[in-house]
Amino acid sequence: MKLINRDYLKKLIETMDVPDIKVITGIRRSGKSKLLDLFEEHLAKDKTNNVVRVLLTKKEFESLLDKDNLYKYVEEHYKAKKNNFLLIDEIQLCKGFETVINSIHDEEKFSIYLTGSNAFLLSSDLATLFGGRVFEVNVLPFSFKEYNTYFNTNVDAFDDYFVKGGMSGSYLYKNKEDALKYVEGVLKSTIIKDIIQKYKIESEELIKMVARYLMDTVGNKTSFRNIANSLSNNFVKTNDKTVASYVDYLCKSYLFYPVSRFDIRGGGYLQTEKKYYLSDLSFRFAELGSKKVDRGFLFENLVAIELIRRGYEVYVGVLYNKEIDFVAIKNNKRIYIQVADDISKQETFDREVSPLLSIRDSYPKMLIARTKQAEEDYKGIAVIDIAEWLLS
Questions:
Q1: What share of the chain is helix, strand, coil (3-state, %, to 5)?
Q2: How far apart are CA 336 and CA 63, in angstroms?
């Protein structure tokens, strides 16, 4: 498969001297192992580096599934007077791996980089596994910019990306149906291996129904009670506590990202009625098809994930009785963002800019939509085409 340089590589390079254990997380098939391949290539360019790469899914490393053998192998490949790097794929395959990794880390001989199954390397579990000595690099599917790099295209490829999404493994399939089957397979593996098997869930169909509900309602405020009621109305017996647990599991598998509400006037965080955004829209198209698509809400999903990818804290803004799609915060600075599809009608445009005009502080404000026009300014609001913004 074709490899491209991703921004995550820069992150790995920037943290080479950070003593923490670097753990690469993210949805299945998002390119975590490929990222380690690129990082290994980068390290190999410097002759003062010694790279120990262990791929536990390969036959040649089968003996290293034993933790004592793994420790011995790493020790034997250490080279004094070199910068030593340890890169291990699918670390969870080695039973008791945490004791080995913690021991190697304590010896301060290697800079350690790990990938593994989400069922074993959940963000919430990392501190427990490695005593809080962790730097997490969360890898998302391809952005529109990365899609363009991969296919050598430009802004005109937006409509293709919108449907194909960023699961790069699907790009190898020439037939659209085969590509969707690949994505569907990734989704099934995520639910079965990262959720059902880990949490010993009895009803596979119920958690799939919760996932479908969230896919169908991206961009909408969600309550666990409403989900439970909706399922109950379709003769599926459940309750809000079960739904809450299942939604939590779906987020821990990196399939969905929760976004809380933020009180713009008071500056407080509101925990009720979060929104949930899908890590990649291709999962929605694979599972639900392309009928009854509200492009405005799906554009909102694209923007939410891109903001997360760019390192922002992302919230839904609340100002009196109005809602701002996103309050993006980084380095104590905010950006207010509204997202829409077609704003060519004056009524639609006025509705979208109204919440932004109600905000009285001086932080930047944006309306991102499918304008297919150059950026414009309207009363201090930057009106930007979504394809251009994704490439900016």
A1: 45, 20, 30
A2: 53
Rg of the chain on CA atoms, in Å: 22
CB-neighbour burial class of residue 258 (10 A; exposed 0-12, middle 13-18, buried 19+): middle
Q: Read off the tokens for 112.
A: 């350690």
Please report the domains of the chain, with CATH numbers, ordered by start residue: 7-139 (3.40.50.300), 144-391 (no CATH)
Using DSSP's 3-state secondary structure scheme, residue 386 falls into helix
pLDDT tens for each residue of 45-88? 999 999 999 999 999 999 999 999 999 999 999 999 999 999 99
Residue 323: partners with Cβ closer than 8 Å, 6 or more residues away? 316, 317, 355
> Taking a C-beta distance cutoff of 8 angstroms, is the pair 273, 45 a contact?
no
How many helices (DSSP H) and strands (DSSP E) are in the chain?
A: 16, 13
In tens, the pLDDT along 101-138 reads: 999 999 999 999 999 877 778 777 787 889 889 999 99
**Kind and range of the H or E run holding 142:** none
Three-class DSSP category at 203: coil
